[in-house]
Design brief:
alpha+beta, DNA integration, DNA binding, DNA recombination
């Protein structure tokens, strides 16, 4: 008995994979995850073969039947659809596959990104795109095929990741157009096709009493010595989490009480100076005997050649009792911004210390030292303020 749309919609997942037959070899495979895939069963030279047709509901029942009929006509003419796909892939130069183009694009842009951003971008592609269309010629990828990949991410509830992955794919397609490997950006066709994530501000704490309690909890944290130092230093310097975890000893001048973050490590691609308070210097002097022989202040527990995980600070905050809705590693920046403005410090000095973007690129190359004397005073006053709040708590 042929399938109907109603029967397909009512089909629920079971503990094991099962199938619903349509006709002429077409059937629907339902996985325990709830995913539904169209398959075609056919024979050539008395040998059974199976061909994937697509995922339901991206491929409707009518479209699946149309594709089945097309493949059956090929089989009648003695053409094996699976073998044809393999031959077509073999005929295409490997450098035209989506994954090859994506990696080439990433390499070309490596000098424009921070190391953390480059790693995260490639990891997102490796997890969500490459396993499905990575070995397909980029010029042959259709919008529905890419949407099928994005739907998998969306189904996990990772709406922001879905948005970012689509954006990465769009940049890769544009690069492929520029290098003659594709003719159009199919990712651009998918704008609005996936659910839009609600814009959320990173959680933070700005009530002075609550900040005092947070500082007290951080001070009493029972993490490893290296993580303990990182967690205590984070609110004092309020840099971006990636800048903190990638900090190297060669960037610090303890005598001058200064941390100079190189341009290639910052979001704005310009040198950023962080004046160090006496409290910050004390933490660094405590940390140096532990990691000073290596490059990174906060090396990974697995290997000293890499920095600690990008989630280490957040995990430490959870262990001292703060939920992800209350504060995250990035939240120390909003905390400092809010309270320093309330304490009456120069707004321009605060913005410069936060290393917020300078629209004028020429000016950005020289403004790393703007308001530096005032920023030195402000960073020491900030550390003293946090210490006082901790003592009051």
């Amino acid at each position: 008995m042929a399938l109907s749309d109603m029967a397909i919609k009512k089909a629920k997942p079971r503990e094991k994979i099962y199938t619903l037959k349509d006709a002429d070899g077409l059937y629907l495979e339902i996985k325990p995850s709830g995913k539904k895939y169209w398959r075609l069963r056919y024979w050539i030279d008395s040998k059974e073969n199976r061909l994937s047709i697509g995922e339901y509901p991206l491929i409707s029942l009518a479209e699946a039947r149309s594709r089945r009929d097309e493949k059956r006509r090929m089989i009648k003419d003695g053409i094996d659809p699976v073998a044809q796909v393999r031959e077509q892939k073999a005929a295409v130069a490997p450098d035209k596959f989506f994954e090859s183009v994506a990696r080439e694009w990433a390499q070309k842009n490596a000098n424009k990104w921070t190391e953390g951003h480059a790693e995260l971008s490639l990891r997102r592609l490796e997890m969500n795109i490459f396993p499905y269309i990575g070995q397909k010629p980029i010029g042959e990828i259709s919008a529905p095929e890419l949407l099928e990949c994005l739907r998998r991410v969306e189904a996990r509830g990772a709406l922001e990741v879905t948005r970012r992955v689509r954006g990465l794919c769009s940049m890769i397609f544009r690069y492929a157009i520029a290098t003659g490997k594709a003719e159009r950006d199919v990712a651009a066709d998918l704008i609005g096709a996936c659910a839009t994530p609600k814009k959320q501000h990173r959680p933070t704490i700005t009530d002075p009493q609550e900040v005092g309690r947070l500082m007290q909890a951080i001070d009493a944290c029972s993490a490893s010595a290296v993580v303990y130092c990182a967690l205590r230093l984070a609110p004092l310097v309020f840099v971006r989490p990636g800048e903190l975890r990638n900090a190297e000893w060669c960037e610090f001048n303890l005598e001058a009480a200064e941390w100079r973050i190189p341009a290639h490590k910052t979001k704005m691609r310009s040198l950023h100076i962080v004046p160090l308070s006496t409290q910050a210097l004390d933490i660094l002097k405590e940390l140096h005997p532990l990691t000073g022989d290596g490059n990174f202040l906060f090396p990974s527990v697995r290997t000293a050649s890499r920095p600690m995980s990008d989630n280490t600070i957040n995990v430490a905050l959870r262990r001292i009792g703060y939920a992800k809705e209350e504060i995250c590693g990035h939240g120390f920046r909003a905390m400092a911004s809010t309270l320093l403005n309330e304490l009456g410090w120069n707004r321009d000095a605060i913005e410069r210390q936060l290393a917020h973007g300078e629209r004028n690129k020429i000016r950005a190359a020289y403004n790393h030292a703007e308001f530096l004397p005032e920023r030195r005073k402000m960073m020491q006053a900030w550390a003293d303020y946090l210490e006082q709040l901790c003592q009051k708590a």
